[in-house]
Every structure is written in structure tokens, then in C-alpha cells.
Automatic annotation (TrEMBL):
Modified positions (O-(phosphoribosyl dephospho-coenzyme A)serine) in chain numbering: S28
PTM annotation: Covalently binds the prosthetic group of malonate decarboxylase.
Pfam families: ACP (PF06857)
Protein name: Malonate decarboxylase acyl carrier protein
Any single GO CC term annotated in Swiss-Prot or TrEMBL for this entry: cytoplasm
Cellular localisation: Cytoplasm
Main location class: cytoplasm
Species the sequence originates in: Desulfuromonas soudanensis
Superkingdom, natural source: Bacteria
Signal sequence region: none
InterPro entries xref list: Mal_deCO2ase/Cit_lyase_ACP (IPR023439), Malonate_deCO2ase_dsu (IPR009662)
Alphabetic keyword roster: Cytoplasm, Phosphoprotein
């Protein structure tokens, strides 16, 4: 199991949503994402626990893209990965943020 940690500074303070959101499942080719509010002085902290070792640079690229698209502040995002592809990671992260911000129906 590999554990990775990333931090991204947001340009705004961000919007507080639901206390905690959990989407997805941990299974082969999929992942679980938990989003919760945390006081990080405007940062978004993302931790990844993955069974697929050696993909840190790919995680960095996917999460940089995610952070640039959403500009999230004061959030802790925890990912439990079962070997999801970058496209699945991006979609699951988008889903988690939409649910956190209450934008889903």
C-alpha cells in the first residue's frame, strides 16, 4: 500500500458544504473519496492510499488538474484507491465535490 499526500493553495476561502461526503467504493478499478471541511488556512489537502505503487507523478498531474478546476479551500479529501484509471479518479472527485457542495439532485 502506498500513501501519498498533496496540498493545493486555493485563491478563495471556499464554500462550506455538507459536513462529510463519501462517494464510490473500493474495488478493482474504482475508488472511494471522502470530502470533509478542515481548517487548513485556505489549502486543500488530499491524501491517497493506493494498492498501485509507483504512480505518484500521475496522481500529482490528475490532482493538480482537479485543484485548478475547482479551486477548493479548507478541505480534506481522502482517497482509497483500488487501481482506478486517471479518468475514473477525475470523475469520482468531481462527483464528491458536487455532493459536498449540494449540487446533486
Amino acid at each position: 500500500m502506498e500513501h501519498l499526500k498533496f496540498e493545493f493553495q486555493a485563491s478563495a476561502q471556499g464554500r462550506i458544504g455538507r459536513p462529510v461526503v463519501l462517494v464510490g467504493v473500493v474495488s478493482s478499478g474504482n475508488l472511494e473519496v471522502m470530502v470533509e471541511h478542515a481548517d487548513f488556512n485556505g489549502c486543500c489537502q488530499i491524501t491517497v492510499s493506493t494498492s498501485a505503487r509507483g504512480f505518484g507523478t500521475i496522481w500529482q498531474a490528475v490532482l493538480e488538474d482537479f485543484a485548478a478546476r475547482h479551486d477548493l479551500a479548507n478541505l480534506r479529501i481522502s482517497i482509497n484507491d483500488g487501481g482506478a484509471s486517471p479518468a475514473v479518479v477525475s470523475l469520482r472527485l468531481d462527483q464528491a465535490v458536487e455532493e459536498y457542495q449540494g449540487r446533486t439532485s
